[in-house]
UniProtKB/TrEMBL annotation:
Catalytic class of the enzyme: hydrolase
Protein name: UDP-N-acetylglucosamine 2-epimerase (Hydrolyzing)
Lineage per the UniProt record: Bacteria, Bacillati, Bacillota, Clostridia, Peptostreptococcales
Gene3D superfamilies reported in the protein's UniProt record: Glycogen Phosphorylase B
Molecular functions (GO terms): hydrolase activity, hydrolyzing O-glycosyl compounds
Keywords: Glycosidase, Hydrolase
Gene name for this UniProt entry: neuC
Pfam families from the UniProt entry: Epimerase_2
Annotated EC: 3.2.1.183
Length: 388
């Protein structure tokens, strides 16, 4: 029996993994099984208990691994990683997976990758090779790349960076981002219905997500205060905010934005909107604002402008529909003015995404299935040298 596991710990990464899960499970038979392991903030009421979203999707859940998700300081993050490492080492030692599928750059995914390495479990990694200079995700992502056997970057620049890290091109496959697959198939709820589902009537609105800039953790209050003042500067626009993730400082951001909701009438805060509802809201938004990768990858595909604040996403390949700005109020206000310009909106309609053609998941699933069945995985990787 060949058995692989797909691991999800957050709402955002579950959305990106969903088409891969569905594609791989089309291959299931008596000799090939695909398990879904749910962990992290999915099992936390504070972050919306988004395992319910997974259940509503109809996807079978095979394992639930509870890990701590406190994020007040560095000790919390290290404790979370330590518990995660122990629990997943025990799971992998018991299950003997032929490989695990993980995505991105979360600190808990680093612990899971270490557990896989300690138990000689092959790692199939999605979204490696990106750069995000303002977050610890940068070094976590590249560390996971070196632990992984198969690599599925989302664009050609990330593909080249993985080769720079010494990974053989025979194990690196640029099929694009699964977010494009999602957008083309899931952003389908009508405008009036999707706004009604969150208690709003037809209006001009923006979609917001503000995550911690973990390399600037001491500036959270200043950054969020500046962002909220910019929101107040546009009272004719409703700002629909999804809460921050569980990076260090995320809980503080959520507290600040949650408190502000009571005094700022055009601010509406949600723990989680769900993948389908979120993408459908983005589709009709005036713009996306904040520092989430969604503004870099998903929004341009839907021809929606993005205001990208600060350095969290610095280094990612960007489309011309993205306006970058500093985190002070004046810069944010001016950036919003720019993306609301009629000529800029017309320009956004012509943007072509550099993140693939919408068929990434099926190609990823086919390659994983092929490699697992080939019985040719050798974890004693040679370093692939390139000319410098």
């Amino acid at each position: 029996m060949k058995k692989i596991a797909i691991i999800t710990s957050t709402r955002a990464e579950f959305g990106l993994l969903t088409p891969v899960i569905k594609s791989l499970r089309k291959c299931e038979n008596s000799g090939f099984n695909v398990e879904l392991i749910v962990t992290g903030t999915h099992l936390s009421m504070e972050f919306g208990y988004t395992i319910d979203e997974i259940r509503r999707s109809g996807l079978r859940i095979d394992e639930q691994i509870v890990i701590p998700v406190d994020s007040k300081d560095a000790m919390d993050i290290s404790t979370n990683q330590a518990v995660t490492l122990r629990k997943f080492t025990s799971l992998f030692d018991k299950k003997h997976y032929s490989g695990i599928v993980i995505l991105g750059d979360r600190y808990e995914m680093l612990a899971i990758a270490i557990a896989a390495g300690n138990t000689h479990t092959p790692i199939f990694h999605l979204c490696g090779g990106d750069t995000t200079e303002g977050a610890i995700d940068e070094w976590i992502r590249h560390s996971i790349t070196k632990m992984s056997y198969l690599h599925f970057p989302t664009n050609v620049k990330s593909y080249k960076r993985i080769l720079q890290l010494g990974e053989s091109p025979k194990r690196v496959f640029n099929y694009g981002s699964t977010s494009i697959d999602n957008i083309l198939s899931l952003a389908n709820i009508p405008r009036e219905e999707i706004l009604g589902s969150i208690g709003l009537q037809d209006c001009k609105y923006a979609i917001c997500t503000y995550h911690p800039v973990t390399m600037e953790s001491g500036r959270i209050y200043e950054q969020i205060s500046n962002f909220l003042r910019a929101v107040e500067a546009y009272p004719n626009i409703e700002f629909i905010v999804t809460k921050s993730n569980s990076d260090q400082g995320g809980a503080y951001i959520n507290q600040l934005i949650g408190n502000a909701e009571y005094r700022i009438q055009n601010l509406h805060v949600f723990s989680s909107l769900g993948v389908v509802r979120y993408l459908s809201l983005v589709k009709y938004a005036e713009f996306v604002i904040g520092n989430s990768s969604s503004g870099i990858i998903e929004a341009p595909v839907l021809k929606v402008p993005t205001v990208n604040i600060g350095d969290r996403q610095k280094g990612r390949l960007q489309s011309e529909s993205i306006v970058n700005c500093e985190s002070d109020t004046k810069s944010i206000v001016n950036a919003i003015k720019n993306v609301m310009d009629a000529d800029f909106k017309i320009k956004c309609k012509m943007v072509v995404s550099p993140y693939g053609d919408g068929h990434a998941a099926e190609k990823i699933a086919e390659k994983i299935h092929e490699v697992v069945y080939s019985d040719c995985i050798d974890l004693k990787k040679k370093f692939f040298d390139i000319e410098v």
